[in-house]
Each structure stands twice: as structure tokens, then as C-alpha cells.
Give the backbone structure.
Amino acid sequence: MAPPTPQGRPVGARRTTGDLVATGVRRTVVEPRTLEILESIQRKVLWLSAWMVHRANARPSVDGTKVGGHQASSASVVSLLTALYFSALGPDDVVAVKAHAAPAFYAIQYLRGRLRADELDALRAFDGLQAYPSRRKNPHIIDLTTGSMGLGAVAATFNALASRYIADHTPKSATGGHGGPVAAPHAPTGSG
């Protein structure tokens, strides 16, 4: 038998309609059908992210060197990123993706129609998708450049502080009525 979670439910047990799932400071009820859809999406994200790393390593190189990839680090956040991007994020939310989760993040952007298949195939290739999410290289899909040294947490913290300062010191009429940025880069067109 699986060990119970802090909520008393065995690890891997299915949630029921009555269970609450925390999303930031909000608590929402997740319907069983929604969970089935998210599980289906997360399986695709996991497969695509592993495929990208495999393709990057199978790409011919002059000296036979493989470019590597962080499949386990990427796989460890597939459920979280799937829930965020396909269920929980609002138009003003900003995400700092851990650097080694780039393949899972790119797979999600592909499924959302924001990247093409040939872009996924060019992970870690010259002029292709970067191993670490970068706003300089991909400003249309990346909220925060995270790099490899834990900069995501620092960037997110200072972004939140700056946003709070702007919200506290800017008339709401100048920011679309809500005191923050008009729309985050991941937001659907026309939101904000």
C-alpha cells in the first residue's frame, strides 16, 4: 500500500470532486473530468520533453559529443507546469521556470500553439531553443530568464516587489484598471 500524504490520501490516489487543490492563494474544486484531461496533457508533455532531449543527444556532432539534457529535472515538474499552464494561470501571472525544466516548458508551449515542431527539434542546437529559458532569445514565450544558478527565484522575488511598488504608486487608470502589467507574456492574445 502507498504511504499516505499529509492530507491522508495515498500517493497516486485519484482526487474526488470534494478535494480542494491549492492554486496560489486561491482554493478551487477540481472536477474529475478536468483531472483526466490534465493527466492526458501531462503524459504528452512528459513524452515531448524526453523526445526533445533524446533528439538533441542523437543529433550528429563533429566530435561525437552529446549535448546532454536534464530529463529527470524536467520530468519532476511536468505535473506542476501542466496544472499551471492549462488550468490555474491568469493573464497577470508570471512564471519563473527552473532552468533544467526547459524541455517540459517548451513542450507545453508547443501544445499551446506557441512553438512549432521544428523548434522543439532544435533544442540546444545553434540558433535553436536554449537549454535555459531566456527572454533575450524567446521573449514571446518566456516570462523571466532563469539561468542555471537559481536566478529564477531571485528574479521572481524582485519582479513581485517591483510589481507591488508599481501597483502601490501608479493610478489604476494607467495600468488597465488593475494596478499591474497589462498582460504577462504567456497570456492569451487580448487578455489583460
Remarks:
- The radius of gyration is 19 Å.
- Strands lie at 20-23, 26-29.
